[in-house]
Predict the structure.
Amino acid sequence: MKAYRIRAGRGIDSLALAEEAPAPLGAGQVRLRVRAVSLNFRDLMVADGRYPAGGDRAVIPASDAVAEVIELGPGASRWALGDRVATSFFPHWHAGAASAHATREPFGADADGVLAEQIVVPQESVFAVPAHLDDAQAATLTCAGVTAWNALFVEAGLRPGQSVLLLGTGGVSIWGLQLAKAAGLRAIVTSSSDAKLERARALGADETINYRTHPEWQDEVLRLTAGDGVDAVLEVGGAGTLARSLRAAAMNGTVAIIGGVSGFAGEFDPFALIMGAKRLSGIYVGSRGMGEDLARFVGVNRIAPVVDRAFAFEQAGEAYRYLESGSHFGKVVIRVGG
């Protein structure tokens, strides 16, 4: 079978496709035929060395896949041949709170990932996907979908009628927008592109803010909420946005720290947390149980995740470059089978 490997810190050009022997199938494991893989910002971080992966060896990258069960190992009874499943970002975090033990060996970093024609994984590390999703859409559940679900409904505990601020129009933010609207939340979206903001409004965004037109966008959020702020912020920016996100959050609001597109350095006034009774919450994707909850919600509400562009398996390097360009709206996917 064919698989890609990459060396952390060697750049996207180190991504190489090779023929490999299929991994042996052990007890409680399943062999999957990968159909599609969704890329995340973390995959770019692995490439440029900002996220440790593989130690001194080249690692099979990526964590997000939808796949078909094609072989069952001894004692593997959770699935049947032909079942369509999505990988869980952390193969050992099944339910409950995060722990160092549960979040060990994430796919595409400490353990080989999913950018291959076949993978062998523990049967507990995958969950069923909604039947109405095509393969490219289903591949986006693993990281972006679960992260948005965790931020909105687990950490922030949002209820219908409350509000959320979504920074940008990348994968997590657009997933957050779609989940928010299905759950009856008021959604405000930021972007530097009026065209992307128009697309966000078409997906149901109640308010949009161009942060080039409104560089002090937190003030615009306060204006749109009659000075109250939003109940939750999905903070994906990092340096230069965290202080503004805190200002935009309502009293008792949650700022869910999801990523650092502009880096993780930055300053904010802790006194703002105290006076506003606000909460910073680190979101480390989520458990398989959250993935199962997400899949049920997506199925009932017939949500169709936004895939900006799907590349062929042989175009994986181009897919990485396209994600790196930042021009995408929603998710970037690589089709593996067919």
